[in-house]
Design goal:
The protein has 245 residues and is of the alpha/beta class. It is built from eight helices and seven strands. It has a single domain, classed as 3-Layer(aba) Sandwich (Rossmann fold).
Length: 245
Amino acid sequence: MKTALVTGANKSIGFEVTKQLAQKGIYVYLGSRNLENGIEALNKLKTEGINNVEAIQLDVTNDESVKQARVIIGEKTKSLDILINNAGVYGGYPQSAFDATVEQFKAAYDTNVYGVVRVTQAFIDLLKKSSEPRIVNVSSSQGSITLHSDPSYKYYDYKGAVYLSSKSAMNMYTVVLAYELKGTNFKINAVCPGYTKTDFNGHRGPGTIEDAGKRIVKYALIDKDGPTGKFFSEENNPETGEIAW
């Protein structure tokens, strides 16, 4: 049975990704900053007959929490096939380049960038032991500098210095990570789930949780001929999915 770790998985898109992966027969470690919330999410899945999921306390902003999660998972499995770096924060308001505080930037980057680095580096050894390792960094088309430089982009006027820049930084980490693992069996991509109705945006998005989950799971399960080091947003490019960084 393949194994997967999903961060920020106790609710919203992370929960849906966990559910969809488990439904495909994958054993999923449901990462949750608060273990009680993780267990609550786990119990919801059990009521739907999904039992191949295990809650793990994992705060991506805390070095010790990440290390402890690695120890616990390492005691349960010899390899990890899929890592979904889903945990993310918006960064609060204001998001103006003039008014956003340095503390806002630090908090957003600690989750959206440093958290991805912490978790990826902690679990890379287990991923290397998989025959088909996959990493999906959950991004946003809002992190595309190309799109946000284009006045015709439909979200051009939805600027936010904190959140957008954190996703751009995470995207670059994705590019470098894929480059350093080129020629291996790794497939590493950044995937935008689309503007989805979640707590994250006050349920303003037009997309569904189910569709967002499918978009992420698709790239977690790509075969050996699939892409790596790419940025995908099917909302912005329904034909091929790929968008510019």
